[in-house]
Design goal:
Helix content is 61%, strand content 11%. The chain is mainly alpha-helical and 172 residues long. The chain starts with a helix and ends with a helix.
Amino acid sequence: MLDTAPLQDAYRALLDAAAHVADADDPGPAPPDGEWNADQILAHVSLVSAATISAVAGVAAGSHTTYDNRIALDAWTIERTIAHAGGNPGLRDRIGGQAAALCALAGGAALSDTELGTLVPARLLSNDSLLVDQPMPLRDIVTGLAEAELPGHTKQLLDLLPDRTVAVAMPD
């Protein structure tokens, strides 16, 4: 069984940051060219979360599965996800549900330690750079969300806030 407390904490921090950005009176400057706005960040996280749930469910079902984040980087798919979710509030609700589902699947009795060790062919890109193109243990895919993916996007969201709001959102 996988300890999903770090994953729950990472999702909670991301959703808290997203709420701070959504509630900000002055959302700060527009993101730099080539960077995402808050809705695009959340849509990307939703797509990554869905792909992770799919991989976890596939292993639990005994299916051959892969993990590929390229669709979560596609501009058209991101915009479609924003529209289907109903914008920022819908994206936050969707991600909250995905977090609960992923934590229940990965942390419950649905997967044994052997299944969590299943090598899943993975292809991961970031900023047009190939990060991973090899099989990864399913456990590492899930923990990678908690350790890198979600904290990185939490910071990206908080960077959209004016400096004074970040201090309130991230007390010492």
